[in-house]
Amino acid sequence: MTRIALDRVAKVFGHQIDDALALSRDGVEASVIRDQTGATVALAETTLNIAAGEVFMIMGLSGSGKSTLLRLINRLVEPSGGCISIDGTNINGLSPTDLRTVRRDRLAMVFQGFGLLPHRTVADNVGFGLEVQGASEEVRLTSVADWIARVGLDGFATALPHELSGGMRQRVGLARALAAGADILLMDEPFSALDPLIRREMQDLLTGLQQELGKTIVFVTHDLSEAIKLGSRTAILKDGRIIQVGTGAEIVDSPADDYVRAFTDDLRSSGRP
Amino acid sequence: MFPESFTVSIAQPINTFVDWLVINYGDLFELFSDGLLVVLVALEGFFRDAPWWFVLLLIGLVAYGASRSIRHALGLMALSFLMGVLGLWDEAMQTLALMLVATTIAVLVGLPFGILLSRSNKTRAIGLPVLDAMQTLPSFVYLIPALMLFGLGKVPAIIATVIYAVPPVIRLTDLGLRQVNKEVLEAADAFGATPGQRLWKVELPLALPSIMAGVNQATMMALSMVVIASMIGNRGLGQEVLLGINTLDVGRGAAAGLAIVAMAIVLDCTTQAYARRVQISRGDS
Known about the structure:
The complex is a heterodimer.
Chain A: E1 2-13, H1 17-25, H2 30-37, E2 40-51, E3 55-59, H3 66-73, E4 81-86, E5 89-90, H4 96-105, E6 107-110, H5 122-126, H6 128-133, H7 137-150, H8 166-179, E7 184-188, H9 196-213, E8 216-221, H10 224-230, E9 233-238, E10 241-246, H11 248-253, H12 258-269
Parallel strand pairs in A: 3-8, 3-9, 6-7, 7-8
Antiparallel strand pairs in A: 1-2, 1-4, 4-5, 9-10
Chain B: H1 11-49, H2 52-67, H3 70-85, H4 89-119, H5 121-136, H6 139-150, H7 154-178, H8 182-190, H9 195-223, H10 226-231, H11 237-246, H12 250-280
Helix pairs in contact in B: 1-4, 1-6, 2-3, 2-12, 3-12, 4-5, 4-7, 4-9, 4-11, 5-7, 6-7, 7-9, 8-9, 9-12, 11-12
């Protein structure tokens, strides 16, 4: 079942948006469009279907449009064209109030820089989504205690974010997203800021939780090995265009072009599949 | 000579406007003035009637609450004690009441305007020059219409003090809100917070250190107005300075000046200690 569907979704920053979109449709490169119109095509028209329960990875270098693509799904970035739908409901057309309801109930997000509230304790950060939803204190406290335990933060409920290490902070970010109860998880390079050992720990934590929960996850990364380890499918982005979509094996065995091959070669030389 | 045919007199229309205000809305201004007076007189009465040691204890408690340091609290209590030693306790209590009322009004007025300024660059482009004008306009220029509207005494003194003290609250509220971490704001939006929830649960708490710096500056600026406020009939430390000058009694003026400095240090240290504690408790010292 398709959970998230993107139909010719594009994002252009600047003026002359229609001209830039037309050029982009003709296959003109983003840098050329910028010179001609002054507009920046962050994401060329993209069509993508993400199934329920899938862990879908978006991979690319910085500036390739992967963060923009992720933020189009919850409309933190407004699309310049195309249609985004969740379970068949068009997200573009929603009023601000309806959009908030969808964000509250269906979509949760985890950030690279954690995005925690510095003045709130771990428990109050984890409970933020439920608080916004207007859940009763009883429900909130029970759920918060549960999630704090499940992400391995036992004993840290009353700590403030700045007292925790990076890995611990992202556990708070993950617990906050999961406590909100949404069935779609948007993750924007959640483990990129962590050092390698902690990153692996967090990847394993996510894998373990996902086996129980079966959420639909859209995960942005710049690391192909992370994409292959965690994802059921990966989309590789370059200059705002999807170059290849496939499972890890498909990408490693038959890279679509030299750009993708550079990543897979890098992966082989580092001694992993 | 600048040609006379080019000159326009704005004095007359402004006079007419103020007269019109006084004639048509005098009752309204009086009502507002009376309300403000009730609050100020009550607060002043409380400070003046309360035993000196009780007020001293209160200052110590507030200072401790702000800094969580006993040494800090004792130091500020000693400074407050000095105002009594100088023989100016009663005057100091009058000034303290005026400061508290003026600063509270400055915060109540400044916060919403600061929020408004932070919402768009257009409101900011209009707002900032107005704030500059409020701070550079000689205070007597708005003291005179304030006198006409509210009569002599404490109320115009409060109004003049607020006009002078409110700009830093507005400025630093705007600044604090603009400096809130972008990812934290994204998180608030991503979890579906309403604009109100975002403001109260995320933006204002995160801007609090900056807002407190604004409150600190506002108290300092308010205190620098006490002498001028005393010219229109507000008693207190300012009046002592004024009397000292008028009678060429240098010593009397100096004693009152010293008491004003002591109060400035007490107010400054208390508000600053609070701002610093908020900041340190979040790990960004």
